[in-house]
Design brief:
The chain is an alpha/beta fold. It has a domain at 13-63 and 96-139: Ribosomal Protein L13p, Chain: A (Alpha-Beta Complex), CATH 3.90.1180. Helix content is 28%, strand content 17%. The protein is built from five helices and six strands. Helix 1 crosses helix 4. The radius of gyration is 17 Å and the shape is globular. It starts with 14 loop residues before the first strand and ends with a strand. The relative contact order is 0.24.
Length: 143
């Protein structure tokens, strides 16, 4: 008897859609990370990308608890000397609300080439409309 492992040709990927209106950021991000990695499937393999695609709509309406709106800070570096930039969650929500969910999910994914390839299956949109209707996404239960 040999152990069966999933191969890229054997994966049947589904598309899920999540409406982020009035959902808490961390709880949504953990569920999305589980689906992107494929841990919700019985054929989960840690060293293979066997997850599904996730579309998040209404990213600008996501909630956070406590004082994170003013206190949480996102950093990035421009790769120039002294190029460390910072932006609060409040300003990030005004400029690029989709980056809030992307950053939360990215922190929960594996580091390295496998995690980066899994993260490409995440599509985040600030508004309710999205260009992925041809994929016929199913609604994802987040309880």
């Amino acid at each position: 008897m040999s152990t069966w492992t999933v191969r890229p040709g054997n994966i049947d990927r589904k598309w899920y859609i999540v409406d982020a209106t009035d959902l808490i950021l961390g709880r949504v991000a953990t569920r999305i990370a589980i689906v992107l990695r494929g841990k919700h499937r019985p054929e989960y393999t840690p060293h293979a990308d066997c997850g599904d695609h996730v579309i998040v709509i209404n990213a600008d309406k996501i909630r956070v608890t406590g004082n994170k709106e003013a206190d949480k800070v996102y950093y990035h570096h421009t790769r120039f000397a002294g190029g460390l930039k910072s932006i609060t969650l409040e300003k990030q929500r005004e400029k690029h609300p989709e980056r809030i969910i992307e950053a939360a999910v990215k922190g929960m994914m594996p580091k390295g080439p496998l995690g980066r390839s899994m993260l490409k299956k995440l599509k985040v949109h600030a508004a309710a409309d999205h260009p992925h209707t041809a994929q016929k996404p199913e609604s994802l239960k987040l309880n």
